[in-house]
Amino acid sequence: MIKISTGLTGFDKTIDMLRLGDNVVWQVDSIKDYKKIVAPYITQAKNEGRHLIYIRFGNHEPVIDELEQVSLYHIDAFLGFESFATEIHNIITAEGLEAFYVFDCLTDLLRFWYSDLMIGNFFKVTCPYLYTLDTIAYFAVIRNTHTFETIARIRETTQLLLDLYNIEGDLYIHPLKVWQRYSPTMFFPHLIQDNGTVCITASAKAAELFSSFDWNNERLDYWDVTINKAKEALNLDEETQQKMKELLISILIGKDSRMFELCNQYFKLKDILKIASREIGTGYIGGKSVGMLLSRRIITSEEEYKAYFKPYMESHDSFYIGSDVFYTYIVQNDWWELRTRQKTEEGYFSLAQELHDKLLEGTFSESIEDEFIHMLEYFGQSPIIVRSSSLLEDNFGNAFAGKYESVFCVNQGTPSKRLQEFEQAIRHVYASTMNVDALNYRINRGLAEKDEQMAILVQRVSGDYYGKYFFPHIAGVGNSSNLYVWDKNMDMDAGMLRLVFGLGTRAVDRVIGDYVRIVALDEPTRLPLMASEDEKKFSQHKADVLNLETNTLTTIDLDDILTNDIAVPKTLFASQDFEEASRLRALGYYDRPVPYTLNFKKLLSQTQFPVIMKKLLQLLSEKYDYPVDIEFTGNFTSENNFKFNLIQCRPLQTKGLGKTVEIPKLHNPNDCFFYSKGNFMGGNVRLSIDYVVFIDVKEYLSCTEKEKYSIARQIGIINQALKNTSSLLIGPGRWGTTTPSLGVPVHFTELSNMSVICEVAYGSEGFMPELSYGSHFFQDLVETGIFYIALFKDQETVNFNPEYILNRENLYPSLCPEANFENVIKVIQTESLQVYSDIIKQEVLCCFNKSKNK
């Protein structure tokens, strides 16, 4: 066994010297004392020709003054825990075996992270790695600054924990932990002298040395210390309050961002303190929480808005699980090394599933679990929803719409059962950070290297009990800019809603066999382009609710709800279908009640709801100075009074209408690839198309389900091969569905390089597009800049002529190594094929540019 000197001969004897692999932590009163103990270690290491490394990150004076024979690394702790820990991990990897380290004082990390918890996490992930490489590393913490829990984690992890005292100019070392070594005098204090050490064994002398120290002083987490200082500032001058407010915003919300500026403008110090009082753990509260809080604050910050909206607005009592809890969960369950490898280029996808599975089975610390219990006691048996709120989510330019999970907790049963289900919901949200869609989204948006800590927003579900079900009357998505205008007189800036009955899950997802109500807020009762007889067909037929008996999120037929009491007249949301009732009686069904069609006619024509939503979206867009996207719920009384709950708000990336495009006139309806009146999204465009990727519906129908999934993967390969080209993807039914019988089940990243996607309706075969405006799918289209078209080929206003391009060579075999579906997939290279659209005229045309084909 190789023994290494500390440079203090007498002390070497006391601890039986250092060993390769030792992490040595010094509790000190000052940096000057730390420097005094580091100096002989450095001198000894230089004399022995050791490879010395100084990790510099603190604001304090340098620990090592003479850097000859020392490799110096400056690390920016301001970038956050993960970046900091990862960079140091990479340095340790590069420096290799038997390197000797000196780290700046860990206490200085509080200036950047404001959390003792994260210092303990950093030590726990770094020291074991140093140990495996047979290094020796010196660390320091300032005594009585950190919580007992943090020091306990350090003591548990390190090989040596030593108190260093400066008493009237004399240095004393008091070993607290010396791993795998022991002597009868090892744990006595030792006076350091030039010619050795003196062990203080006499009780009188030891008592004299230590009796003046306060051993039972309260040690709050630095986070709590900072919050307490902010509370004290409430009674001080405005300048001090402003500084404390900005500090709290930076540690709760983030620094140097547009959201920081908006929060600083609208929040007061007391508002930020209220947010902090409802946080579990420490760290950022994440983008979704910030968006919800900021939008609600904007609405209530000025008297004219407050007076207008307050009578209609539900209160909220949300909680926020800080982002530090996510990291702590990973560290305490010993998965940090796996996460570090997953963050590399080689492990980014290959290790994601392993980490995903582990994230579903970890345990939480006792202190965090106690806070969970306290929160659940507050909510009682009210249903709650556990929502992702990552650092990058719902920010300017990056919506992450639908990439991470949200989990309903119906919250029924015993306290222990409710805690178990709540913790599992958190695990599911954490595990969703490793979803393939989320990983691809981060890579495609250039965010793979950024810290993506997962905070969590816990909200009380809006709604009420109706028999065994719990739900709000209405829910939906609102956009301040309406790109789905279908008449020249419509106002794009009036905004639109994507409205459903029941829980809002059906408003944000493209659901099977169901259609949401699209509401143009400049004329709410106007229906999108469709035949009058299609109103029932293209309406909502099912609702998502919480089932209190089964303790689950459940989908049920609307008839099952509307035949029971919902506390308000059903005609507020639905109209009775007397024609259908008549048809049923003619067939002999005399006992059937008159069925309903969910069209929200009275809601949109006889209540203030659409007016409130329009003003709300306009206000938020004005204050954000950017289009916005919101999620909301609404609940009504028998007098048609209502309250809405604003549960989410984020910037909505949109390109606007664009310049007017002149669409060529067709002399022959067959002289185009396709033409449609309406049913497209993406503004006015004129796009040149280099390639068309076409799925043959009849051949696709003849494939097995397994083959249909294989076809989806082949589309992904083609999508990658056609990157940086202008390509049009066209196929039956819905792109991206999870049900192959309804369309091709590609992931969004498998079509993300396309310029145009087109969904073709084949009613007889069961393929039916859904105009996805306002859904998570729509967010992806907008952010990626993809133009969308739905072709209902049986409509009189649609021409669709596949043969227009399909007589050309199929390039599919040359693009895919294993081209097994030549009869299904056609890839056609085109010259001068153009897509034209005019939003005002509601026309979209794809044909060859005649001037170039003469």
Written account of the structure:
This protein is of the alpha+beta class. The chain folds into five domains: 3-210, Rossmann fold, CATH 3.40.50; 223-277, no CATH class; 316-460, ATP-grasp fold, A domain (Dna Ligase, domain 1), CATH 3.30.1490.20; 466-651, no CATH class; 674-853, no CATH class. The protein has 30 helices and 36 strands. A nine-stranded mixed beta sheet has the order 5-4-6-7-3-8-9-10-11. It has a nine-stranded mixed beta sheet with strand order 29-33-32-31-30-35-36-28-34. Helix 5 packs parallel to helix 6 and helix 10 packs parallel to helix 12 (287-301). It is elongated, with a radius of gyration of 32 Å. 45% of the residues are buried.
CATH architecture of the largest domain: 3-Layer(aba) Sandwich
Q: Please give the CATH class of the largest domain.
A: Alpha Beta
Q: Tell me the CATH superfamily of the largest domain.
A: P-loop containing nucleotide triphosphate hydrolases
Distance between the termini: 87 Å
CATH fold label of the largest domain: Rossmann fold
Strand content: 15-25%
Q: In which order are the strands of the major sheet placed?
A: 5-4-6-7-3-8-9-10-11
